[in-house]
Structure formats: structure tokens, C-alpha cells
Amino acid sequence: MEEGRDYTPEEFAAMFASQEGNNRNEEVEQGEEEEEAGGSKPSGKVSYVWKYYEKVPVPNKPRHFRCVCTVCRDITKIMKSYAWSIGTGFGSMSRHLRNDHGITASGVGSQTQTQLSGFMSEQAGGDKPFFYSQKNMIDHMATFVNLEELPFTYGESVNLENFNRLALQPSYSHVNRHTLKDRTMAQYKEHKKELIAYFANFDGRVALTSDTWTSKQNNPFMCVTVHWIDNDFFLQKRIIALDIMEEKHTGYNIYLRLKKTLDKFNLTKKLFSISFDNASANTKCIDYVLQMDDLLLNGDLVHVRCCAHIINLSAQEGLAFLAPLLEPIKTCINWTRNARSMKTQWKPLCDKHGLRNKQWGTDCATRWNSTYKLIKQALRYKNVLTEFYNSHQRDEDAMIDNSMWTIAANIYAKDKGESSSSSSVTTKSARFDDQLHSILFRRTQSSSSSTSTLATKELDDYLTHGVDTNDTDFNILLWWKARSIQFPLLSKIARDVLVVPASTVASESAFSAGGRVLDDKRSRLAPPTVKMCVCKRDWDLAKIRRQGAKEFDPLEADEIVATDASSGN
Questions:
Q1: What percent of the chain has pLDDT over 70?
Q2: Pair 514, 530: CB distance under 8 Å
Q3: How confident is the model at residue 550 (pLDDT cuts 50, 70, 90)?
Q4: Model pLDDT for residues 521-545, shown as the tens digit of each residue
Q5: Which residues contact 558 (CB under 8 A, 6 or more apart)?
Q6: What are the two backbone dihedrals, phi and then psi, of residue 374, each rounded to the nearest 5 degrees?
Q7: CA dist., res. 364 & res. 372, Å (int)
Q8: Edge-to-edge, what's the strand order for the sheet holding 64-69?
Q9: Could you give phi then psi for residue 355, rounded to 5 degrees?
Q10: Cα–Cα distance between 349 and 145 in angstroms, integer?
Q11: What are φ and ψ of residue 55, in 5° steps?
Q12: Between these two residues, 183 and 444, which has the higher pLDDT value?
């Protein structure tokens, strides 16, 4: 028998059966031998460990035993056993009780017994006692630390250890940062294997988003995010790659990275689309992707350009037109936020015009909607800002005039816009119908003629009846799920088509997470560790369906503080 080996009840049954009749006699002999050696009583019965271990004599080896942990046997049904012989210590057995079950000598008969039998686990339905396990605690701490984006040294905190021992669990022991990191990596590898196995059996298509990012440490990363709709018609997303990309960012190198990731996760023949921004290297990458096999409609639907990137380019053009007005306003705001002498001049001006002493939010260059909010607020203070700014300008050409405010008011006014003409809608609808027929043909081209006929009838039936979307709570995925029996083939196509993301926001959010992981205090993290932290956090959030939970936004926090300050709260 091996030290610390886990045995099943069946394996121990044979040992108990062969020794059952001799146990009592050998225990008596053991006591007599120990008394002959100088002890007045059997020393083995003195230690607290024997309350939680059952001795099994080793055949043909007198004075040698396998000691079975009864706590493990009763809770996990696994026989954890240790070798012990008369005259030796109990170090391994006591460490097991302390680390895995939180049982120590000081807790015997009072605190430990209360923990073992007095607290009923709600997770177990209230019918099983709760046992503290250091190993189990480390597993959950690894998940918690990564979800909260805390450093691995969190487990070494003396204050945390004191808090846990005094308020929660006296047997708590601090966790070394290396232990925490190793356990996080082990969990990451386990989740990764599960994801690879899942995609191997997945019968649908997936959509990818990809982008590149440079960290504060000037390390270039490439992110790949996979999107799909599962068999229960739930939208799923996982970050499957966040690798450092030291080679030149050419279209071919990006394609090689994508291909390697697709092969690793069994997705090469299940690709539906890739969402990229408008970088020329990404467009060149698509040329190589189109040479892959098993693309629908010869790859006509593969390339999806990020609409958020396109809208941002359009917005930046408009903001450039407003630069003569934006720069003076931003200058005024910086004065009121940072210069003490300017603050004393700003408040009397606000009182003069009957306005509050405005506390301005922060303008972010990469978020044009923050500029929109800034101008929207500035329009109410245009007279104050104009007087305040112009009073500190000697050059008349640099002063703000009313024409600038007129331009801003016109651009940021709400326009109703014109709807698409009916002929345009009809043309697009006809083209979409043709694409549906093509996808349907691809799905059934390897089937019999009768299957193809049924598929065509299914499509005609769908196009004839249409979809009733008058319900304000209409959910397209629930609609298809409810009609998956009526439209079995079309519902599968819907899963492929509806999953396509309109932007690369998913990858951008991964970079935001990477930036928080690689902050100034953790700048030495190796790229594989960064990948582990970002990917595992995304996978853990997906399990509890909290990937879309709103993260802390510094810009919105500034706006809340500014609003409270303006209202006097």
C-alpha cells in the first residue's frame, strides 16, 4: 500500500474481510507489547487523531497498520489512508486533518465538534454536516481572487488571515502566492479541456471577433473571442486566445494565429464569420481565410466590419469640425478643475448668470459619447464659458463667439432622419431570401432529394407566415427555440446567423480586463499568466452568466460625483 493513497470502499472491503476476526486480538497484543516496552497504557489511543481514523492491520506485517480517515470516508466516500506502525508519530495524519478538514487538537470536544456536527450545509440541502477543507478553500479563493482581479499575494495578507481566524474559521491558514497561482493555472487548464471537448461535439457554426492591443509594458497581444448559440438558444461567448504577438502584424501572420487557435479548439470547420475593424492588415487576413475549406457561400458572409469602429470614424470627423469650439471649452474646464485662482473667478460668474457652480466631468479622447455629453452640458453654460474664457484671452481671433455655439447647437440637435424607401427594403429583403435559400441548400446538399424538398417547403412556410413582432418583450432566440420543432433546419441556421456580432466590443472588453490585470502593481506578470487570468475570469463569469455585468466606469463615477457636488449632496 502507498502512503496517502485514495482507496474505494470495494478495495477496502477485502482487507476488512480478511482481518475482521483478528482486529481485537491484535489490538490487545499491541497494548501488551507497548506495556512491555515501558509504557503503562497504549500510547496510540492518547492522540486526538484516533477519533477520526480507523486502523486496518497490514497482512503479514505485525505492528503495521493502514489508518483510514473516517471523515473522508463518510463525506467523499473515498478512503484516504496512511501507513502507521507502533512507536511512530502521527504527523501525516494530523496534517491531513488540519489542512483538509480543519480539525486540530485544540478543537477536540468543543469547537471542532461544533463545526463538524452543528453546522448543516445549505448547499448540500441541510442534511449533511459542513467540514472545513483547506484544499477546498484554496480552490474557491483562487476563483475569487481572479474574478475580483486581485494580486496573488492576496492570500498572504496577515489582516485577511486574522479576520478569517477571528470571525469565520479558526483553522484558516494563509495561502502562499505560488500556491494560489498554481491552483489558478490548474483550474484554467481543466476549463480549457472542457471547452475543447465541447466544441468537438458542437454541431453549429461560430462567429469570431479579433483585435490587437499593446499593454502598458509595450507588449503586443492578439485576442480571439468566439461567439455561438447553444442548443438551448442561449447566446454564449468565450475568450479563447490572448497571446503575445511579437512578430510583425501582417495579414498573413494574423491569419496564422487565427488558424492555430481554430485548430486547437476544434473550430476550423465550424467558422461562420469573423468581425474585424477596418485595419488593412485585417482585410488582408480575410483573403487568406477565404482559402479555407467548409466556408458557407464561398466565404461571402465571413468578413464582418466592426460597425462601432465605422461609427466612431464618422463621429471623429464631426468632432474635428467642432475643434475650434471644443478646445476653448476643454481649456475652461481644466481651469475650473485644476487652478485654484480660476476656481475663485468661476463661482461668481455662475452666480451672476443664475447658474450652479458646475463641477464638470472628464472628457475621454477615445470615447466620443463623453464629448457629446460635455458639449450638451456646455450649451447651458455658453454665456458663462464665453465670458470666462474670453476674459483671459488677449488674441481676439482665439476668443469664442456666438457662431461657434450656433454650430454646436445645430450639430447636437436631435434630427428625426428619413426612413429607407420601400423599394430599398424590398431589394434587401429579396437578396436575404436568396441567401437563405443558398444556406439551406448547403445544409441539405449531402442529403436525399426528399430531405431537400422538405427543407424548401420549410423555408417557403416560414417566409409565408412571417414573424409577429408586436410584443414589446419580443425575444428572437426564444421565438426560434419555441419553433425549433416546426422549423428544425431553419432554427439551426438561425443559430448560425443570429450569433454574428456587429462589432469587436467583445475583444475590446478583454483588453480592458487585461489592462486592469497588468496594472502598475502587477506589471511583471508574464504573458501566459495574463492570458490565464483574463480567459479564466471570462469563463468563470460565463458559468454564472455575468459576462455582461456592468464594470466600474470612472467616467460615470466622475459624473455622479459632479452631480452630487452641484446639488450640494
A1: 70
A2: yes
A3: low
A4: 677 788 899 899 989 999 999 888 7
A5: 361, 362
A6: -65, -45
A7: 11
A8: 6-7, 79-85, 64-69, 53-57
A9: -120, 160
A10: 49
A11: -85, 135
A12: 183
